[in-house]
Amino acid sequence: MPRSRPTRVAALSALVALLLAAATACGDAGGLQGAGPTETAVSPDKLWPELTPASRPAYEIGEVNREVVKGVTVPGDDILDVDPVAVIRKEIAQSPGDYEGDDATYARTGRLMAECDKGAGRGRCPVLQPYYRDLTGDGHPELTLGFRLMPGRTTAVRVYTVEKHRLVKVMGWDDAISGVELAGRSVIIRSPSEVAGYEYRLQWTWDADQKAMLLTNDEMLRTDRRKKAPHPSSSHRSPSPSPSSSVSPSRSAAAPSASTP
Length: 261
Prior knowledge:
Layout: H1 5-30, E1 67-68, H2 84-94, H3 107-112, E2 131-133, E3 142-149, E4 154-163, E5 166-176, E6 179-183, E7 186-192, E8 198-207, E9 212-222, E10 248-249
Antiparallel strand pairs: 1-5, 2-3, 2-10, 3-4, 4-5, 6-7, 7-8, 8-9
């Protein structure tokens, strides 16, 4: 039996109300909401335009660290066959006053080099486990080395490559280090800061024109606020860096550790 007009009107009204309710619910779930007022963009102000632009740096900080390592052979131009301990011994021999004698700045490092007969990263040898990774993009690995400068807590980080049958140092940095990473064509070093809750993050990147690793990023970053920075005069142990899984450890080293000593 066909519905009466009042019944149809009531049914139609109920259907419209249901559709409106559904539309309203959908709007609440996925509708756009205002994020509030945004700040007005302000262009930078150029200060002291009357100053004559400087043409040379005020300080020599050694932006390009590049040096041929003399006396170290590269068998078959394969950097994997270079002895990491021999490389560091050559560097130490260039500055004997820093490593020899009781009053030397790094006297303990000089003494402990005698413990490196079993290779880098073994026992008390101050030369850390070497890592190999292509940082120049030529398809061949570079050698990243670190050695501890004792009795202090400074660590030296070096990167070497092979050019024309010669071993060439293309990056060098000494610092109190809390972590070292290799990422792409870059070496990233994290160091503690005296400012609580912050650390330094320095990044060196391979530059084909200079044929060296250049310091391309130097910044201070906030760390976990729950961690308090140690007082500069207090003794502490910095956390060990975690090498990237794509970085190859030394072929002469023992089973690769998850972290550097």
